[in-house]
Amino acid sequence: MASMYVRYDKPQKLDLLTGFALAACIVLGLLIGVGSVDLAQTDLTVLVTLFVALPVLTSCVAYYLGWHMKKHTVSYAPPKWTFEEAAFSLDEVRRLRRSHNTQYLRLVARSSFWHFYLPILCVLLSAAIPLTPLLGIDLSSSTRGALYLANLLILASVSGIGGFLSTSNDASHDFSLPLLREASALAKTQASIHGVSGVQLVMDRATVDGLTVYRRPRVRIGISGLEGQVGIESISDELGSVRCVQCTLYPRDGHAGTVWLWTNTDRTFRKRTGVSDDVYYVRNPVHSMSRELGVKDVSLVTMNAIALAILEWRKLHGSRSDIDRILEDMGCT
After folding, report:
1. Cα 304 → chain centroid
2. How far apart are CA 67 and CA 111, in angstroms?
3. Using CA atoms, how far apart are residues 16 and 20, in angstroms rounded to an integer?
4. What are the pLDDT digits (tens) for 143-172?
5. Residue 40: pLDDT above 60?
């Protein structure tokens, strides 16, 4: 991926020295594995050094190597991004996450649960190898040696990969994907609500010199029977929650547009009509036991936004059986 804005530098001497140190740890592990240490005749200090200290050192060296190669081998000069709105289906978002992270592997910062906890498990497994006789597990010396070496190789691989993937560099702020998993979960929840149609995940996208970045993921939905007349956009910052919901009844037939806004800091819908500066709170039309809507009340907040838009539309255009049925199903009259 050649670009005038991103340059990949060659590994530095420190990277080579660190790689040599990692190789030395692996070779030492190989020698231990082949030599199959006699547990009964070996001093406790030596056992701790070989089966605890050496794996920990291997993990630290491998992580540092991955961190350093990600941090110091990329030069980035930010271009001037011009963003345009782009809409995606949930399937397209899933494919985008995989393809984007693969294409910009050396630029994005992402981590996995296993990148940090699997090394701990490997160290614990290594420390347990000398204890196998005490645990009543009868392993031959060659089996213990092979297990130790395989464990050390896995430990080095996972630590190095984890250090590389989780580390950010100068380009990571631009190229790391925004909170797509949270937005996708929000979209799935809203899609299950009666009356919702046209679920899309919308982002701001910019492309310069073959480089593409994304910003501001939000979920956009419509109302069945009122497509093109009502739009609802929602933003989520964490799984299973909603931070902001904006519902818009677009101007039509000489009627001014109306906007309702709910935020996690206010927790009550505010209404504004047309270009007026008058903004006021409105009552939630959907009955519930909650006195105020919280960030975890995703379905309830969405249902209230839908109900507010339908009630306003009926006031302007009159009743219609299909949208009246949506209100009835939500418990609004």
Report:
1. 28
2. 12
3. 6
4. 777 788 888 888 988 998 899 999 999 999
5. no
Interatomic CA distance for residues 48 and 311, integer angstroms: 72
pLDDT at 34 over 80: no
Which pTM does this prediction carry? 0.81
Distant-in-sequence, close-in-space partners of 301: CB < 8 Å, separation ≥ 6: 242, 245, 262, 293
Q: What is the dihedral of CA 89, 91, 93, 97, to 10 degrees?
A: -170
User: Could you give the percent of the chain with pLDDT greater than 90?
Assistant: 48
At position 253, the amino acid (one-letter code) is D
Cα diameter, the chain: 93
User: Are the CB atoms for 287 and 313 separated by under 8 Å?
Assistant: no
Pair of tokens at residue 272: 């504004």
Token pair of 142 as six digits: 């060659």
Q: For residues 90 and 185, give the distance between their C-alpha atoms in angstroms, rounded to a whole number.
A: 10
Side-chain half-sphere CA neighbours of 266 within 13 A: 15
CA distance 255 to 258: 9
CA distance readout (Å), 164 to 68, 101, 146, 306: 8, 13, 27, 45
What CA–CA distance (Å, rounded) separates 302 from 43?
Answer: 66
How high does pLDDT run on average in the chain? 86
Q: Summarize pLDDT for 258-317 with one digit per residue, the tens.
A: 999 999 998 899 999 987 778 889 999 998 887 788 899 999 999 999 999 999 999 988
DSSP category for residue 173: H
Q: How buried is residue 94: exposed, middle or buried, by Cβ count under 10 Å (0-12/13-18/19+)?
A: middle
Positive or negative: CA dihedral 302, 307, 310, 311? negative
